[in-house]
Amino acid sequence: MRAYLSGGMEYVGDEGRSWREEMEEWLASALGWESFNPNRNSDLLLDRLTPDVPFRTLKTTDRARYQKIVEEIVAVDSHEVAEGSDCVICLWDDGATRGAGTKGELTIARYFNKPVYLVTTMRYEEIPGWVLGCTTKQFTSFEELRSFLRHVSRGKCP
């Protein structure tokens, strides 16, 4: 089994690394699952494509280069949700609401009938209807999600 770890990056202080690394480790040790962590993939890509400059600065200093890199990130991540992962685990927080990637990933998952497990402390009324329409099950904490996955997982995304 393979879970795509979706959530804000561009507008989050650590680009969502901490929760993804923790979830990635837990999925492997507790369930034997693999994960796609977009932080790791982006790091590899950006090390190759922008060794000379911090990537985010390109948004204001070299739009054409930035656009080309973002197009590659979108292609890789979209393919991973559609073809490489069995489900999506999403942290829906302020960072996710500001960006667009998370919404796109959830839409792709929905289109390809992949379960989407949304972890959020936001009130239901504050979450966009589109996001709710892509969500299979909602949790108020990662511990609640982990408990659910431990109890219902039998080698596949429930």
List the helices and strands and how they pair.
Elements: E1 2-7, H1 17-31, E2 34-36, H2 38-49, H3 58-61, H4 63-84, E3 87-91, H5 94-98, H6 101-111, E4 116-119, H7 129-134, E5 137-139, H8 142-152
Helix pairs in contact: 1-8, 4-6
Major sheet summary line = 5 strands, parallel
Q: N- to C-terminal separation?
A: 11 Å
Average pLDDT taken over every residue: 95
**Spatial extent as radius of gyration:** 16 Å
Order of SSEs, N→C?
Answer: EHEHHHEHHEHEH
Q: What is the strand tally?
A: 5
Identify the CATH homologous superfamily of the domain at 2-37 and 84-152. Cobalamin-binding domain
Low-confidence regions: none
What is the strand content?
A: 5-15%
Please sum up the structure shown.
With 158 residues, the chain is of the alpha/beta class. Helices cover 54% and strands 13% of the residues. It has a five-stranded parallel beta sheet with strand order 2-1-3-4-5, with helices on both faces.
Describe this structure as you would to a colleague:
This protein is an alpha/beta fold and 158 residues long. The chain has a domain at 2-37 and 84-152: Rossmann fold, CATH 3.40.50. The protein is built from 8 helices and 5 strands; from the N terminus they run E-H-E-H-H-H-E-H-H-E-H-E-H. The chain has helices at 17-31, 38-49, 58-61, 63-84, 94-98, 101-111, 129-134, 142-152, and strands spanning 2-7, 34-36, 87-91, 116-119, 137-139. A 5-stranded parallel sheet has the order 2-1-3-4-5, with helices on both faces. Strand 1 (2-7), helix 1 (17-31) and strand 2 form a beta-alpha-beta unit. Helix 1 (17-31) packs parallel to helix 8 and helix 4 runs parallel beside helix 6. The protein is globular and about 50 Å long. It starts with a strand and ends in a 6-residue tail after the last helix. The mean pLDDT is 95.
